[in-house]
Every structure is written in C-alpha cells, then in structure tokens.
Amino acid sequence: MKSRKTNHPQLIFALLFLLTACVSAPVTSTPTQPPPTATATTQPTPTPTFSPLPTSTPPAVLITSGDWVEPYIALTFDLCQDPDYPAGYDAAIVDVLTRYAVPATFFMGGDWMRTHPEETKALASNPTFELGNHSWSHPNFETLSPEAMSQEIEMTEDALFQLTGKHSRLFRLPSGTYNDLSLQVIAEHGLYTIQWDSVSGDPDPAFDAATILAEVQRTARKGSIVIMHANGRGWHTAEALPSIIEYLQNKGLTLVTVSQLIGLEPKP
Fold first, then answer.
1. Is residue 21 in some structural domain?
2. Which residue in 18, 57, 69, 164 is deepest, having the highest Cβ count within 10 Å?
3. What b/e string do you get for 130-144 counting C-beta neighbours within 10 Å, with b at 16 or more?
4. Over residues 182-210, mean pLDDT
C-alpha cells in the first residue's frame, strides 16, 4: 500500500468540495432522502462500551491508495454531517452497489449515525460493505488537542458498536486535514488513516453525472481509493455510479473494500 505523510497533490482540489460536503448548510437541492430532524436516537455513552485499545498499533501514516500493480480499486463513500446541519442518506447509491454486487467502504460520522440508526444497521448487515470511522462532528483534526481527537474517535466507535456490534479498523480524516500528531493519535486507537487518490468532485452541485464520471476516469488507476459521498451531498453520485462501475470493470479492475485493497483482508 502507498503511505504518505504529506498531502496528495489532489487534496487541495478535493478540499474545495469536501468542506461543503459534511459541514456546511445544504445547497438548494433535493437529496434522495431529505435530511431528518436531529432528534436524539443513539447517544454516546460516558464510558465507551467498545473493546480496549488493541495491543498492536498501526503505523502513524496516511494511506492514500493500495499498490499500483495489482488490478484492484476501492470505492468509498462518506456519511457525515455537522451537528448543526444534519445531512441525508442517498439510498439510491446503495441500490446501485447492491444491483451490481460490488463491495464498498462507508466512512461513518458519529453524529450522522445518531440521526440515521436504521440506515447504519442496514449498511452493517450487508456483507459486501465495510464501515469506517469518520469522527463524531467532522472537525479539523489539525487544530484539535489529542484529548479532543480521542473523544471524536471514541464517541464514534462507541456509537458504531452500539448500533452494529462491529468495530472499525479504518479512519478517514474530516475534510482530509491532518498533521503528524493527528496521525499518531489515530494510530494509537488501532485505526489506519485512509485518504484517497481519486477525487470524484461529487459534493459540487455543478458536477453532473458526466462530469463525475470524467473525474474518476481522469484520476483512477490500479490501487486507487475513490472518494464519494452518500449523505445526500453527493448530488449526482447515484446517477453517475453505474457508469463508474462499468468503466472500472471494463478496464479490468476488480472492486474491493479498502481493507482488502491494503491487505487487511484477503482479496477476492
């Protein structure tokens, strides 16, 4: 797997969109499912119920892709929100993935899971999907203290365990921002920090399905991790997804989870 401790060159482009994908008020549009009201459904417990920290610690590095030799590629979808601006759920994306019988990795925000408990359970019940940790409230990890970062990670992990009985092994940085300290804290929680190297641009409402497909065609290759959004702010993602899957498969690429891509699970 490719590990880096510096931002990927495409990160600047991605941040222009990612900052609006989870933490800003929704742009005028209609997601597949409208955002719910932020009523309390699943709350983090004062004492986390998940297992103690693992005895082995992953490397404190940023993983942006698998190797660029084997013909595997991972589709990833962020499910995040700012607590002040609840996001939705694009069920059409899951329908497409299910119809094509392809795996995917969903990075789950803790506050998003709080307002979407049934959707979280449904995703966890699909054996072709894996769930990763995407922090609780989508803050900037470059500016947080180690204690605040730990709280964001542990609250989210606790919510995931309460809802699904499962643990994460992967963590995605909110908006992709980080420093060496944040990478170290994440690793100390037994999580691999997962970035991306293929940007779809789907949080931009001006990116129609054809544009999203063109961005994936331009950036994806063997070993890539493709970033998209399933929280209703990947505005045309579901529309573009069938063409993306068919394009990648026609290129001879096999779709896998991130854990399979980076060697934590066996490849198909």
1. no
2. 18
3. bbbbbbbbbbebeeb
4. 97
Taking phi over 0 as left and psi of -120 to 50 as alpha, with beta for the rest, 252 belongs to left
Digit-coded pLDDT (tens) for 216-255:
999 999 999 999 999 999 999 999 999 999 999 999 999 9
CATH number of the domain residue 99 falls in: 3.20.20.370
Does residue 188 belong to any structural domain of this protein?
A: yes
Residue 60 token pair: 């404190």
Enter the pTM of the model: 0.85
Distance from C-alpha of 42 to C-alpha of 141, rounded to nearest angstrom: 24
Residue 42 structure tokens: 């699943």
Domain enclosing residue 177, as ranges: 58-126+133-233
pLDDT for 153-194, tens place per residue? 999 999 999 999 999 999 999 999 999 999 999 999 999 999
Residue 267 lies in a domain: no
- Number of structural domains the chain divides into: 1
The dihedral of CA 63, 64, 68, 72: what is its sign? positive
Q: How confident is the model at residue 56 (pLDDT cuts 50, 70, 90)?
A: confident
- Which residue intervals of 126-236 are DSSP H helices? 146-164, 180-188, 209-219
